[in-house]
Design brief:
The protein is α/β, with parallel strands linked by helices. The chain is built from six helices and five strands, in the order βαβααβαβααβ. The chain is 43% helix and 20% strand. About 4% of the residues have low confidence.
Amino acid sequence: MVSIKKILLPTDFSESATAAYAYAKELASIFKSRIFLIHVYEPIAFYSEAPIGMPDLVDIEKNIYASSYQSMERIIDQHFQAEKSEQRIEKVLIQGKPFLEIIRYAKEESADMIIMTTHGRSALEHILLGSVTEKVVRKAPCPVLTIRSQTGFVMP
């Protein structure tokens, strides 16, 4: 019997990311799993001698963290109320390269499954931007369930 006790649920707060929430919620209910809702934000480059009038990058980064934390709270309140009351969902906010940190965290926590959406980018967008989901699928230490986004899918 397959045992899924830890589900990693990456989000970038996009509309398409919501497609994975229902799958994570249902599987967590069936297997009595814990959900780790994870968001990875990229660091801002810091310069030691910023020109006068340049915004304080430390404050900007603090605002990004606070905004991301609030967005995660909103997702949990809207989609995971039962899991929140049963303490089966955990917020994880990490700074770094998204695909690397998702894979690292999955290994560190011994995740049994990662559930994430594809954005359905066009071929040109895919070449220019790459795909976090594709990189996670290739390198993940556990199975990855990918959910096709229903918003904005462009046929190649």
